[in-house]
Amino acid sequence: MKVENTHLKDVLIITPEIFGDDRGFFLENWNSKNFASAGLDVNFVQDNTSRSKKGILRGLHFQLNQPQGKLVKVARGEVFDVAVDLRKSSPSFGQWFGITLNDINHKMLWIPEGFAHGFCVTSSTADFQYKCTNYYDPDSEFTLAWNDPTVGISWPLPDQKNPTLSGKDSNALAWPEIPFFD
């Protein structure tokens, strides 16, 4: 596998080795030994999958008291995936990184604890998968507004329309209102 740094400290792009022929392909999504040798010695406790339609935006979510590291990928379709650094001590505090993840490039994104995370579906549907280092805790969860002007994310929204949001995401907090990590 290939591991690339991003401009956000500790956020990594992971491209697995793909073995393919006329029958299809095979790749490893997770191998603890290989990931540990690449510096990602983490313990995942929860695997999640969501299916969303084009124009759905989920996020930007984070858990303050039970933070989650996430290894994310798309099994089917395409999303624009975003991480925002919420660690006050980080040199990339307040900055965001976005990448297109799809079932063609098979790239994964490692988002460590201390980041808000979200994605927007750019294909007709997308199956999004993520492994988490901590359990979901709704009492610890916060949502940063997807369109917060302080962060200034350039979302590739279909037809330049506003995305479809959940009720929780529609009531997200602005940058000055969210708690940060040390």
Write a structural description.
This protein has 182 residues and is mainly beta. It has one domain: Jelly Rolls (Sandwich), CATH 2.60.120.10. 5% of the residues lie in helices and 40% in strands. It contains two helices and 13 strands, in the order ββββαβββββββββα. The strands form three sheets. The chain has a six-stranded antiparallel sheet with strand order 1-2-10-7-12-5, with no helix packed on it. The protein has a five-stranded antiparallel sheet with strand order 9-8-11-6-13, with no helix packed on it. Strands 3-4 form a two-stranded antiparallel ribbon. The radius of gyration is 16 Å and the shape is globular. The two termini are 32 Å apart.
Report the sheet-strand fraction: 35-45%
Globally, the shape reads globular
Uncertain spans: none
Q: Oligomeric status of the shown chains?
A: single chain
Helix content: under 10%
